[in-house]
Structure formats: C-alpha cells, structure tokens
Amino acid sequence: MLRRQRILAPVLVTALLVLALAFPVAAAGTYYVRPGDSLFFIAQRFGTTVQALQKANGIYSDIIYPGEPLYIPACNRPVHTVQRGESLWLIANAYGTTVSALQAANGLRDTEIYAGELLVIPTGTGLRTTAAAASTAPASPEEIDLLARMIHAEAEGEPYLGKVAVGAVILNRVRDPRFPNTISEVLFAPWEFEPVMNNRFWQITPSADSYRAAQDALAGWDPTGGALFFYNPVKSTSPWIFTRTVITQIGQHLFAV
User: Fold this and answer.
1) pLDDT value at residue 226
2) How many distinct structural domains can be found in the chain?
3) Which of 58, 108, 127, 169 is in Cβ range 3.0-4.6 Å of 103 for a Cys bridge?
C-alpha cells in the first residue's frame, strides 16, 4: 500500500531520465514543425541559420508543413529531447522553469508534446539536481493505475489541467489527516466517488493523458491550490457539496475545501 510519506514523490526515474537526456549546447536532434512555424523562426529558436536547416534536410525552398520532422544541426541553444511519458510540467520542474516559459520558448499553444521532439530550454534556467527535482520513492504501478483510472472516470472530457486537478484532489486527501492515508483507501471510501459506486471505475481503460496526469499530480503539480473536493455544479445532486468553499474552477468542475 502507498503510505502517506510516499505519495509526495515525483517520479524519480523521470527525473533521472531528464538528467540523462538533457542536450548540452551544440546538440542536434529532430524538431516537428508546428502550425505557424517557418524556417526563419525555427532557425532563430535553435540558434542556427535557414541555410543550415535547408542543407541538413535537403530542402530547396522555404516551404514546410505542420508535423514534418526537421533535423536540427548543431545549435547554440540548450535543448531537451522529449521522452515517452514526459510532460511539459515534469520537464519545466526538472529545469527550474515554468510551463508557460517552455511554451513561449518553443512557440507552443498547448501542453501537447511528442516523444523524440526537441524543446528549447529558456535561457537563465539550468538542470536541477535529482535532489531538487525529485523527493522520495515513486508510487507503485498499482497505485498509479488506480489514480489514472479515477482521473479518466471523473475527468475524461475535461482539459488536461482538469485531469491533473482531479489527481491532485485525491493526493491532497491522502495527505490530510481527516481522510484515509493511502490512494486506494481514499478511492474506495464509502460513498465518495460515483465511478466506484456504479462500477464504471473497473469498466474503463485509462487514456495516456490520464496516466500522464497521474504522474504530474504525483510529481507535485496541484492546479487547485489545495482542494479536497471537486464537483460539477450542473450534475451534482448533493446539497452538502454546495456548502463547501470553492477556490477555483477548471473546465466543468468546481474545486473546494
């Protein structure tokens, strides 16, 4: 069982992976063209030239297409190669920067990233040590699966931030002495979660985003600011839940204490 002291953990393996795969200055790799990109802006972003990009990729014009892979020759920007299971939040945390700073540095309009692509690391930040980027042991695969299941069951149609928020509420309860102190005990407490009561919890297959959101919540990302409850005000039928103090709204859910 995952005891209270263990759920504070970001995934140590991820932190070590970030350390191992941080490209130094003058690294090379693959970049996937995004909507609105041009060779000029990509060259500026990675500190190279349009001519160098064209030569490295056998391009004889300035025309590029979204989703097209471009090989980035040796550049003078610190970059990171995205690995399977990583998220912008985990990468930002490892480098001591923010998701918004990563998005700005890479021209990202959302939080979607792909394994194998290069991300420019904003200047003025550096890779944090494993002690700073990670704390204690990771959750067990069984507990991560349970957390991802509930995230999917409760927030399937919600934005990614809303998925992380649901996971954070569950972990906030584990830390709070008024609730059980393991993930499984919080999830299976009587009358707490509708997906458990109607058995949908066991009928679903968590999405990749749900697993990623579980990892981000375990790593310490709490978009709710410490909420212990969440509900959809349109669907909720419990008079009691409306007495709680709402601290934020994400998607269709209100988050409260």
Assistant:
1) 87
2) 2
3) 108
